[in-house]
């Protein structure tokens, strides 16, 4: 009997908390497979203790819904000698060079990104109900790693979901995520669709993206709505106004409040229009994403704020789960996925506001009993 690892948002209370951290580990040179397996097992055991609230043999804390998820990168899978799944190998992100993160993608690497620690051997996703609970778990993993072994910390990427459910752009975030009832079909690697050890699991995608609010705030709010495809105040999808040709309006919401209120479900999904529709709504991000049915993913967004010299830098940890990596790569390389209506460029739009600092793809095997999940767990 298999089940998804905690932290995979399959619904039904099996989700992730509002605070997030991704701890990226890399392998020491010449690490032996037997040592890699042993250390991953020790780290997994530590994670289980932390989920239970056991800090040390003599101390217990409230875990605050802590989830610990292990995702395996290509380097670890090659290092233990099981081979990298073809699906994962084909979807690797390009090395940072200031160009596109994938061939054909509008998202580009930041010129400041000279390496990509997220292309790591082992990614440990931590989520919990508070920032302190996530940080506490990360520190305990770091303590164990400092004892020595074949794995070492390469990067730490924290984030959080805003309580108003909006992104830094000001728009409601995660409105179009698939309903819990259909998520497992989009998430789960079915038997025969990949290596046997991954059947019942999923793939995790991660991008650390800077959001340039200085450029975004200079855009007129009406153009912002046209670019995103949603009403800024309510979050309702924008639609063509039948009474005013060439203009648009937010979809009607029966229940007062915003688009997340129960009863306003119909206002979340846009009425499809052609990409060449004169008002420009057809070129919005929401409309383009709706047309990409073969690239549907379950997305989790965690904002971040960090200092960059004397200024503040806003950004997004883009986290996705999908049954195959190419679901994500189809989204990222889809023509005009990020919209171009406000800027007029072929591949512009939101992509002009974003720059990537880290990116990774990981295989997330299912749990089989209480054992550490992995390619050796069959």
Describe this protein with a few key phrases.
globular, alpha+beta, 9 helices
**Secondary structure tally: strands:** 14
Shape: globular
Report helical residue fraction: 10-25%
Structural class: alpha+beta
What sequence of helices (H) and strands (E) makes up the elements? EEHEEEHHEHEHEHHEEHEEHEE
Number of domains: 1
Cα-based radius of gyration, to the nearest Å: 21 Å
How are the strands ordered across the major sheet? 5-6-2-7
Note the gap between the termini.
11 Å
Protein model, in words:
With 378 residues, this protein is α+β, with helices and mostly antiparallel strands. It has one domain. The chain is built from nine helices and 14 strands. The protein has helices at residues 33-51, 74-79, 86-90, 131-145, 180-187, 213-216, 221-228, 285-290, 325-333; strands at 2-3, 19-27, 54-56, 59-60, 67-72, 122-128, 151-160, 202-211, 238-240, 248-250, 298-308, 311-322, 354-364, 367-368. A four-stranded antiparallel β-sheet has the order 5-6-2-7. A four-stranded antiparallel β-sheet has the order 11-12-8-13. A two-stranded antiparallel sheet has the order 1-14. Strand 3 and strand 4 form a beta hairpin. Helix 1 (33-51) packs antiparallel against helix 4. It is globular, with a radius of gyration of 21 Å. Residues 340-348 have low confidence and may be disordered.
């Amino acid at each position: 009997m298999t089940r998804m690892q905690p932290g995979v948002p399959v619904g039904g209370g099996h989700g992730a908390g509002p605070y997030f951290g991704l701890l990226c580990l890399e392998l020491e040179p010449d690490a032996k497979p037997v040592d890699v397996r042993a250390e991953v097992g020790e780290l997994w055991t530590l994670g289980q203790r932390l989920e239970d609230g056991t800090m040390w043999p003599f101390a217990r804390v409230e875990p605050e819904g802590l989830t610990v998820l292990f995702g395996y990168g290509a380097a670890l899978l090659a290092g233990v000698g099981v081979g990298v799944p073809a699906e994962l190998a084909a979807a690797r992100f390009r090395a940072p060079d200031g160009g596109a993160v994938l061939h054909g993608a509008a998202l580009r690497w930041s010129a400041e990104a000279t390496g990509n620690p997220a292309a790591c051997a082992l990614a440990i996703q931590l989520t919990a109900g508070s920032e302190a609970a996530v940080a506490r778990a990360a520190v305990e993993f770091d303590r164990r790693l400092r004892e020595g072994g074949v794995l070492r910390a390469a990067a730490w990427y924290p984030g959080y979901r805003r309580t108003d459910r909006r992104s830094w752009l000001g728009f409601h975030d995660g409105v179009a995520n698939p309903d819990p009832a259909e998520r497992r079909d989009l998430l789960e690697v079915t038997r025969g669709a990949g290596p046997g050890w991954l059947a019942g699991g999923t793939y995790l995608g991660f991008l650390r993206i800077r959001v340039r609010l200085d450029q975004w705030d200079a855009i007129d709010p009406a153009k912002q709505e046209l670019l995103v495809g949603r009403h800024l105040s309510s979050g309702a999808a924008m639609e063509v106004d039948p009474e005013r040709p060439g203009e648009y309006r937010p979809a009607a919401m029966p229940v007062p409040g915003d688009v997340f209120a129960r009863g306003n479900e119909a206002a979340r999904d846009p009425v499809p229009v052609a990409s060449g529709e004169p008002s420009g709504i057809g070129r919005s991000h929401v409309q383009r994403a709706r047309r990409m049915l073969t690239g549907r993913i379950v997305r989790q967004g965690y904002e971040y704020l960090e200092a960059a010299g004397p200024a503040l830098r806003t950004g997004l940890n883009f986290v996705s789960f999908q049954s195959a990596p190419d679901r994500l790569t189809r989204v990222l390389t889809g023509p005009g996925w990020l919209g171009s209506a406000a800027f007029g460029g072929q591949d512009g739009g939101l992509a002009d506001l974003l720059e990537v600092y880290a990116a990774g793809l990981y295989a997330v095997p299912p749990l089989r009993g209480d054992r550490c999940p992995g390619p050796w767990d069959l």
